[in-house]
Design goal:
It is a single chain. The relative contact order is 0.20. A 5-stranded parallel sheet has the order 3-2-1-4-5, sandwiched between helices. By secondary structure, it is of the alpha/beta class. The protein binds adenosine-5'-diphosphate (ADP). Adenosine-5'-diphosphate (ADP) binds next to helix 1 and strand 4.
Amino acid sequence: MKIAVYPGSFDPITLGHLNLIKRASKVFDKLIVCVMVNSTKKPLFTTEERVEQIKLVVERFGNVEVDSWNGLVAEYAREKNAVAVVRGLRALSDYEKECQMAIINKKINPDLETFFLAASEKYMYLSSSAVKEMAAFGADLTEFAPRELIDAIEKRVSGR
Ligand code: ADP
């Protein structure tokens, strides 16, 4: 069974992330979406909230699990017997950071491969920060965030 891990902040999960999950879930037998705990970022949603939000929107895919991890991706992958880490590449600006991470992960866990999926044209410029910014200005999020989560995002951003 080929297991892959898709790590990220997912604060919140966007339609760009979801597009990647859908595509990667077709390539691997099992995909684990893992919310990485990052103490340097002040998130909009707690780790637990993000895990629940992702669970809600990946229910439709039969082979996607959701988890969280406070540590290194490479170690998480080893623990789960995953063969690959999946990451998305949007504009050129993602490239350097992503390559650096792939190299570090390979050093820690030489059996682990990083698979990059090119962002879909439609979501090329979509990020969690853009969703938060749009929400702050009251923009319509329908094309950017999963419909089930729009209310929660709007409420949290506006402090309601
Ligand atoms: P991180 O803080 O780890 O970068 P993110 O939640 O921002 O976490 O992103 C997780 C992964 O998803 C990254 O590889 C990122 O490049 C990718 N990603 C984010 N948004 C998109 C998108 N719109 N299309 C494709 N990949 C994306």
